Amino acid sequence: EAANVMSWFAGYGGDLALNYEDQVTLGDLTYCRVGRSDWNTMDELRGYLKQLFSDEIVDPLLSTGCFIETENGLYALPAGRGSDVTKGGVVLSVVRSPETPALCLVRAEVELLEWADGAVEPTVTGTQVYQFPYQKVGDKWVFTQFEAIF
């Protein structure tokens, strides 16, 4: 879920269910209404993000300008690109240490793909490993570092 959410801010769109018929233009940017009924305000979106990420991640994400709130609800910039075709399958694992029970690492190993000219299927050329600290902050578990993997 955290990777999906991060994709909204990396330009991939994800599952925001944007309504392309309901648009707002601010400067030279056009935003579309977020179709998810559980988020109508920036505060509701912020609350959702804080279930996944620490404040150190949430605050910079919300300051990117990818989302705005108007009197009609919450709007987001539509995805500007598709997913990264040079990345394939992901294997997730969780690494825990008995010495630090309030911290674990979520490890994502992502296939790196190469597409030969005219190829129908890519060739896996290697992997890239990402590690994200998942930490107990107060009474909840959140990611304290995270980046888009696709």
Class by helix and strand content?
A: alpha+beta
Mean pLDDT: 91
Q: What is the string of SSEs from the N terminus onward? A: HEEHHEEEEEE
Low-pLDDT segments: none
What's the tally of helices? 3
Whole-Å distance between the termini?
13 Å
Query: How large, in whole angstroms, is the Cα Rg?
Result: 18 Å
Strand content: 35-45%
Shape: flat
In the sheet with the most strands, the strands line up as: 1-2-4-3
Largest sheet: 4 strands, antiparallel
Fraction of residues in H or I helices: 10-25%
Number of strands: 8
Verbal overview:
It is a single chain. The protein has helices spanning 2-9, 42-49, 55-62, and strands spanning 18-26, 29-34, 67-70, 73-76, 87-96, 103-114, 123-137, 140-143. The chain is of the alpha+beta class and 150 residues long. The longest helix has 8 residues, at 2-9. It is flat, with a radius of gyration of 18 Å. The two termini are 13 Å apart.
